[in-house]
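for the writeup, i need someone to sanity check this before i put it in the appendix. the sequnce is what the collaborator sent (i think, or maybe the updated version? ugh). structure was predicted straight from it, no edits. if anything looks off just tell me and ill rerun, i have time this weekend
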Amino acid sequence: MYDFIVVGLGIAGWSFLQVLEENHQNFIVFDNNSQQSTRIAGGMYNPVILKRFTPAWQAHQMLGYSLLQFKKAEFTYQQKYIHDINIYRKLTGVEEQNNWMAASDKPVLSAYMNGISYEPIEGIPAKYGFGVLHGTGIVNVARLLDDATQKLEKKGLLKKENFVYDRLEIHDNFVQYQDIKAKYIVFAEGYGLKKNPFFQNLPLTGTKGEMLMIATGVHIPYIVKSNVFIAPNVAKKGQYYVGATYNWQDKTNIPTDEARRHLTAKLQQLLHAPFDIVQQKAGIRPTVKDRRPLVGTHPLHPNLAVLNGMGTRGVILAPTMAKQLFNHLVFDLPLMKEVDIKRFADG
Protein backbone atom coordinates (compact mmCIF):
# COMPACT_ATOMS: atom_id res chain seq x y z
CA MET A 1 0.00 0.00 0.00
CA TYR A 2 1.16 3.52 -0.81
CA ASP A 3 0.86 6.37 1.64
CA PHE A 4 -0.40 8.75 -1.05
CA ILE A 5 -1.77 8.93 -4.56
CA VAL A 6 -1.16 12.41 -6.00
CA VAL A 7 -3.11 13.56 -9.04
CA GLY A 8 -1.46 16.44 -10.90
CA LEU A 9 2.14 17.51 -11.34
CA GLY A 10 2.04 21.27 -11.54
CA ILE A 11 3.56 23.52 -8.90
CA ALA A 12 1.05 22.36 -6.25
CA GLY A 13 1.56 18.66 -6.92
CA TRP A 14 5.33 19.01 -7.05
CA SER A 15 5.34 20.95 -3.77
CA PHE A 16 3.34 18.20 -2.09
CA LEU A 17 5.76 15.55 -3.36
CA GLN A 18 8.61 17.52 -1.79
CA VAL A 19 6.91 17.31 1.60
CA LEU A 20 6.20 13.60 1.13
CA GLU A 21 9.85 12.87 0.37
CA GLU A 22 11.00 14.87 3.37
CA ASN A 23 8.71 12.80 5.57
CA HIS A 24 9.68 9.46 4.00
CA GLN A 25 6.23 8.77 2.58
CA ASN A 26 5.80 6.55 -0.46
CA PHE A 27 3.58 7.68 -3.29
CA ILE A 28 2.55 7.37 -6.91
CA VAL A 29 1.62 10.23 -9.23
CA PHE A 30 -0.94 10.56 -12.03
CA ASP A 31 -0.60 13.40 -14.54
CA ASN A 32 -2.04 13.79 -18.04
CA ASN A 33 -0.24 17.05 -18.84
CA SER A 34 -3.56 18.75 -19.61
CA GLN A 35 -3.06 21.75 -17.32
CA GLN A 36 -0.20 23.98 -18.43
CA SER A 37 -0.65 27.13 -16.34
CA THR A 38 2.37 26.38 -14.12
CA ARG A 39 4.68 25.90 -17.09
CA ILE A 40 3.66 29.04 -18.98
CA ALA A 41 3.42 31.41 -16.02
CA GLY A 42 7.08 32.37 -16.07
CA GLY A 43 7.73 31.36 -12.44
CA MET A 44 7.96 34.90 -11.11
CA TYR A 45 8.02 35.47 -7.36
CA ASN A 46 7.09 38.91 -6.08
CA PRO A 47 5.47 39.62 -2.70
CA VAL A 48 4.19 43.09 -3.68
CA ILE A 49 1.05 43.94 -5.66
CA LEU A 50 2.46 46.46 -8.12
CA LYS A 51 -0.86 47.91 -9.17
CA ARG A 52 -1.62 49.24 -5.69
CA PHE A 53 1.79 49.09 -3.94
CA THR A 54 0.44 46.77 -1.24
CA PRO A 55 1.68 43.43 0.17
CA ALA A 56 0.30 40.29 -1.47
CA TRP A 57 -1.57 38.05 0.96
CA GLN A 58 0.86 36.08 3.16
CA ALA A 59 3.60 36.36 0.52
CA HIS A 60 6.18 37.84 2.89
CA GLN A 61 5.55 35.09 5.45
CA MET A 62 5.71 32.26 2.91
CA LEU A 63 8.46 33.36 0.52
CA GLY A 64 11.41 32.19 2.63
CA TYR A 65 10.09 28.64 2.99
CA SER A 66 9.23 28.50 -0.73
CA LEU A 67 12.73 29.50 -1.78
CA LEU A 68 14.17 26.95 0.65
CA GLN A 69 12.19 24.20 -1.09
CA PHE A 70 13.47 25.28 -4.49
CA LYS A 71 17.01 25.43 -3.10
CA LYS A 72 16.62 21.84 -1.94
CA ALA A 73 15.50 20.91 -5.44
CA GLU A 74 18.62 22.57 -6.86
CA PHE A 75 20.72 20.33 -4.65
CA THR A 76 18.69 17.22 -5.52
CA TYR A 77 18.78 17.69 -9.28
CA GLN A 78 22.09 19.57 -9.46
CA GLN A 79 20.45 22.33 -11.48
CA LYS A 80 19.88 26.05 -10.99
CA TYR A 81 16.22 26.99 -10.75
CA ILE A 82 16.18 30.21 -8.70
CA HIS A 83 17.26 33.40 -10.46
CA ASP A 84 17.33 36.53 -8.30
CA ILE A 85 16.17 39.38 -10.54
CA ASN A 86 15.00 42.81 -9.40
CA ILE A 87 11.69 44.16 -10.65
CA TYR A 88 11.64 47.66 -12.09
CA ARG A 89 8.15 49.17 -11.97
CA LYS A 90 7.92 51.98 -14.54
CA LEU A 91 6.45 55.06 -12.87
CA THR A 92 4.06 57.23 -14.85
CA GLY A 93 4.18 60.55 -13.02
CA VAL A 94 4.99 62.53 -9.90
CA GLU A 95 1.96 61.13 -8.06
CA GLU A 96 3.18 57.56 -8.58
CA GLN A 97 6.66 58.59 -7.47
CA ASN A 98 5.20 59.97 -4.24
CA ASN A 99 3.01 56.89 -3.72
CA TRP A 100 6.01 54.61 -4.25
CA MET A 101 8.13 56.44 -1.70
CA ALA A 102 5.28 56.52 0.83
CA ALA A 103 4.69 52.78 0.43
CA SER A 104 8.41 52.09 0.79
CA ASP A 105 8.26 53.19 4.43
CA LYS A 106 5.47 50.81 5.40
CA PRO A 107 6.01 47.56 7.33
CA VAL A 108 6.68 44.52 5.11
CA LEU A 109 6.97 46.67 1.98
CA SER A 110 10.14 48.32 3.25
CA ALA A 111 11.87 44.94 2.98
CA TYR A 112 11.39 44.91 -0.80
CA MET A 113 10.80 48.43 -2.13
CA ASN A 114 14.16 50.06 -2.73
CA GLY A 115 13.63 53.65 -3.83
CA ILE A 116 13.48 55.04 -7.36
CA SER A 117 16.07 54.42 -10.06
CA TYR A 118 16.75 56.63 -13.07
CA GLU A 119 19.21 54.11 -14.49
CA PRO A 120 18.42 53.86 -18.20
CA ILE A 121 17.19 50.52 -19.50
CA GLU A 122 17.89 49.95 -23.16
CA GLY A 123 14.75 50.38 -25.25
CA ILE A 124 12.51 51.39 -22.34
CA PRO A 125 12.26 55.17 -21.80
CA ALA A 126 11.10 56.20 -18.33
CA LYS A 127 10.83 59.93 -17.69
CA TYR A 128 9.80 59.43 -14.06
CA GLY A 129 12.12 56.51 -13.37
CA PHE A 130 11.47 53.04 -12.01
CA GLY A 131 10.40 51.91 -8.59
CA VAL A 132 12.85 49.16 -7.67
CA LEU A 133 11.89 45.90 -5.96
CA HIS A 134 14.52 43.53 -4.64
CA GLY A 135 14.04 40.10 -3.09
CA THR A 136 12.20 39.09 -6.25
CA GLY A 137 13.03 36.86 -9.18
CA ILE A 138 12.14 33.89 -11.33
CA VAL A 139 12.02 30.17 -10.63
CA ASN A 140 12.55 28.08 -13.76
CA VAL A 141 9.49 25.99 -13.00
CA ALA A 142 9.28 24.41 -16.45
CA ARG A 143 12.81 23.01 -16.10
CA LEU A 144 12.10 21.93 -12.53
CA LEU A 145 8.98 20.00 -13.53
CA ASP A 146 10.80 18.40 -16.46
CA ASP A 147 13.53 17.19 -14.11
CA ALA A 148 11.00 15.97 -11.55
CA THR A 149 9.06 14.14 -14.27
CA GLN A 150 12.20 12.42 -15.48
CA LYS A 151 13.11 11.35 -11.95
CA LEU A 152 9.64 9.98 -11.25
CA GLU A 153 9.58 8.09 -14.54
CA LYS A 154 12.93 6.45 -13.80
CA LYS A 155 11.59 5.30 -10.43
CA GLY A 156 8.33 4.06 -11.95
CA LEU A 157 6.31 6.47 -9.83
CA LEU A 158 4.56 8.45 -12.59
CA LYS A 159 1.58 7.33 -14.63
CA LYS A 160 1.09 9.67 -17.60
CA GLU A 161 -2.59 9.05 -18.11
CA ASN A 162 -6.01 10.42 -17.33
CA PHE A 163 -7.30 9.70 -13.84
CA VAL A 164 -10.75 8.12 -14.18
CA TYR A 165 -12.69 9.25 -11.15
CA ASP A 166 -15.41 6.61 -11.19
CA ARG A 167 -12.76 3.91 -10.82
CA LEU A 168 -11.79 5.23 -7.39
CA GLU A 169 -13.04 3.07 -4.54
CA ILE A 170 -13.27 4.84 -1.19
CA HIS A 171 -12.96 2.87 2.03
CA ASP A 172 -12.76 3.99 5.64
CA ASN A 173 -8.98 3.76 5.97
CA PHE A 174 -7.76 3.70 2.38
CA VAL A 175 -8.64 4.33 -1.22
CA GLN A 176 -8.16 2.00 -4.15
CA TYR A 177 -7.67 2.89 -7.80
CA GLN A 178 -7.48 -0.14 -10.05
CA ASP A 179 -4.78 -2.25 -8.34
CA ILE A 180 -3.31 0.68 -6.37
CA LYS A 181 -4.12 1.17 -2.70
CA ALA A 182 -3.19 4.25 -0.65
CA LYS A 183 -4.03 5.81 2.68
CA TYR A 184 -4.82 9.15 1.03
CA ILE A 185 -5.36 10.68 -2.37
CA VAL A 186 -4.54 14.34 -3.03
CA PHE A 187 -5.96 16.14 -6.06
CA ALA A 188 -3.65 18.91 -7.27
CA GLU A 189 -5.06 19.28 -10.77
CA GLY A 190 -5.21 23.02 -11.29
CA TYR A 191 -8.20 24.00 -13.41
CA GLY A 192 -8.74 20.30 -14.14
CA LEU A 193 -10.47 20.21 -10.76
CA LYS A 194 -13.64 21.39 -12.52
CA LYS A 195 -14.06 17.86 -13.87
CA ASN A 196 -13.46 16.23 -10.49
CA PRO A 197 -16.80 14.97 -9.08
CA PHE A 198 -15.49 15.02 -5.51
CA PHE A 199 -14.52 18.70 -5.48
CA GLN A 200 -16.11 20.26 -8.57
CA ASN A 201 -18.52 22.35 -6.48
CA LEU A 202 -15.68 24.41 -5.06
CA PRO A 203 -15.66 27.96 -6.48
CA LEU A 204 -12.63 27.54 -8.73
CA THR A 205 -13.32 30.15 -11.39
CA GLY A 206 -10.24 29.83 -13.59
CA THR A 207 -8.74 32.73 -15.50
CA LYS A 208 -7.20 32.27 -18.92
CA GLY A 209 -3.79 33.85 -19.31
CA GLU A 210 -1.76 34.26 -22.47
CA MET A 211 1.85 35.30 -22.88
CA LEU A 212 4.33 35.90 -25.66
CA MET A 213 7.94 34.89 -25.92
CA ILE A 214 9.88 37.50 -27.86
CA ALA A 215 13.41 37.90 -29.11
CA THR A 216 15.03 41.34 -29.23
CA GLY A 217 18.49 42.74 -29.69
CA VAL A 218 18.30 45.01 -26.64
CA HIS A 219 19.48 43.77 -23.26
CA ILE A 220 16.96 44.02 -20.41
CA PRO A 221 18.60 42.77 -17.19
CA TYR A 222 15.53 43.18 -14.98
CA ILE A 223 11.88 42.26 -14.87
CA VAL A 224 10.16 45.43 -16.07
CA LYS A 225 6.52 46.04 -15.16
CA SER A 226 4.28 48.62 -16.78
CA ASN A 227 1.01 47.94 -18.62
CA VAL A 228 2.59 44.53 -19.31
CA PHE A 229 5.66 42.89 -17.87
CA ILE A 230 8.84 41.92 -19.66
CA ALA A 231 10.86 39.21 -17.93
CA PRO A 232 14.08 37.54 -19.07
CA ASN A 233 13.78 33.97 -20.25
CA VAL A 234 16.32 32.44 -17.87
CA ALA A 235 16.63 29.43 -20.16
CA LYS A 236 17.57 31.33 -23.32
CA LYS A 237 19.58 34.54 -23.61
CA GLY A 238 18.00 37.28 -25.70
CA GLN A 239 14.45 36.04 -25.17
CA TYR A 240 11.81 37.55 -22.88
CA TYR A 241 8.39 36.67 -21.53
CA VAL A 242 5.72 39.28 -22.18
CA GLY A 243 2.41 39.05 -20.40
CA ALA A 244 -0.10 38.56 -19.39
CA THR A 245 -3.76 38.66 -20.33
CA TYR A 246 -6.77 37.92 -18.13
CA ASN A 247 -9.85 36.32 -19.69
CA TRP A 248 -12.65 35.07 -17.44
CA GLN A 249 -14.86 33.60 -20.20
CA ASP A 250 -12.60 31.49 -22.43
CA LYS A 251 -11.63 28.24 -20.66
CA THR A 252 -9.44 26.73 -23.38
CA ASN A 253 -5.66 26.42 -23.62
CA ILE A 254 -5.75 27.67 -27.22
CA PRO A 255 -3.78 30.89 -27.95
CA THR A 256 -5.87 33.63 -29.57
CA ASP A 257 -5.18 36.32 -32.15
CA GLU A 258 -6.96 38.82 -29.90
CA ALA A 259 -4.51 38.26 -27.05
CA ARG A 260 -1.56 38.40 -29.45
CA ARG A 261 -2.68 41.77 -30.78
CA HIS A 262 -3.39 43.09 -27.28
CA LEU A 263 0.00 42.09 -25.89
CA THR A 264 1.83 43.31 -28.97
CA ALA A 265 0.17 46.74 -28.78
CA LYS A 266 0.95 47.07 -25.06
CA LEU A 267 4.53 45.93 -25.59
CA GLN A 268 5.09 48.48 -28.35
CA GLN A 269 4.07 51.21 -25.92
CA LEU A 270 6.66 50.01 -23.42
CA LEU A 271 9.54 48.71 -25.55
CA HIS A 272 10.90 51.11 -28.15
CA ALA A 273 12.97 48.55 -30.01
CA PRO A 274 12.37 45.91 -32.70
CA PHE A 275 11.30 42.44 -31.54
CA ASP A 276 10.14 39.16 -33.00
CA ILE A 277 7.44 36.96 -31.52
CA VAL A 278 8.96 33.52 -31.01
CA GLN A 279 6.04 31.79 -29.30
CA GLN A 280 2.60 32.34 -27.82
CA LYS A 281 1.21 30.22 -24.99
CA ALA A 282 -2.06 30.02 -23.08
CA GLY A 283 -3.24 28.33 -19.90
CA ILE A 284 -5.98 28.52 -17.28
CA ARG A 285 -4.86 29.87 -13.92
CA PRO A 286 -6.57 28.10 -11.00
CA THR A 287 -8.13 31.20 -9.47
CA VAL A 288 -10.76 31.39 -6.72
CA LYS A 289 -13.44 33.97 -6.15
CA ASP A 290 -11.98 35.07 -2.79
CA ARG A 291 -8.37 34.88 -4.09
CA ARG A 292 -7.30 32.30 -1.53
CA PRO A 293 -6.08 28.73 -2.09
CA LEU A 294 -8.33 25.69 -1.82
CA VAL A 295 -6.90 23.26 0.74
CA GLY A 296 -8.64 20.56 2.75
CA THR A 297 -10.51 17.28 2.80
CA HIS A 298 -13.81 16.05 1.42
CA PRO A 299 -16.65 16.57 3.94
CA LEU A 300 -17.62 12.87 3.81
CA HIS A 301 -14.32 11.21 2.93
CA PRO A 302 -11.35 12.50 5.00
CA ASN A 303 -8.88 10.46 2.94
CA LEU A 304 -9.69 12.56 -0.15
CA ALA A 305 -7.92 15.93 -0.18
CA VAL A 306 -7.52 18.92 -2.47
CA LEU A 307 -4.56 21.26 -3.03
CA ASN A 308 -5.49 23.93 -5.51
CA GLY A 309 -6.36 27.57 -6.19
CA MET A 310 -2.82 29.03 -6.06
CA GLY A 311 -3.79 31.64 -8.65
CA THR A 312 -1.04 33.90 -9.94
CA ARG A 313 1.39 33.35 -7.03
CA GLY A 314 1.81 29.60 -7.03
CA VAL A 315 5.60 29.80 -6.70
CA ILE A 316 5.17 31.57 -3.36
CA LEU A 317 2.05 29.86 -2.01
CA ALA A 318 2.27 26.22 -3.09
CA PRO A 319 5.13 24.98 -0.87
CA THR A 320 3.56 26.29 2.35
CA MET A 321 0.09 25.12 1.35
CA ALA A 322 1.51 21.65 0.63
CA LYS A 323 3.12 21.50 4.05
CA GLN A 324 -0.12 22.65 5.69
CA LEU A 325 -2.12 19.93 3.95
CA PHE A 326 0.35 17.19 4.85
CA ASN A 327 0.40 18.23 8.51
CA HIS A 328 -3.39 18.34 8.51
CA LEU A 329 -3.77 14.85 7.02
CA VAL A 330 -1.03 13.05 8.92
CA PHE A 331 -0.79 14.95 12.22
CA ASP A 332 -4.33 16.40 12.37
CA LEU A 333 -3.01 19.95 12.65
CA PRO A 334 -5.50 22.68 11.74
CA LEU A 335 -5.39 24.45 8.40
CA MET A 336 -5.34 28.21 8.08
CA LYS A 337 -8.98 29.28 8.11
CA GLU A 338 -8.44 31.48 5.06
CA VAL A 339 -7.51 28.48 2.87
CA ASP A 340 -9.60 25.68 4.39
CA ILE A 341 -12.32 24.64 1.95
CA LYS A 342 -14.71 24.46 4.91
CA ARG A 343 -15.16 28.19 4.41
CA PHE A 344 -17.50 27.30 1.54
CA ALA A 345 -19.49 24.69 3.46
CA ASP A 346 -22.51 26.94 3.69
CA GLY A 347 -22.59 27.66 -0.01
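The chain has a mean pLDDT of 95. Residues 59-77 form the longest helix (19 residues).
thx in advance!!
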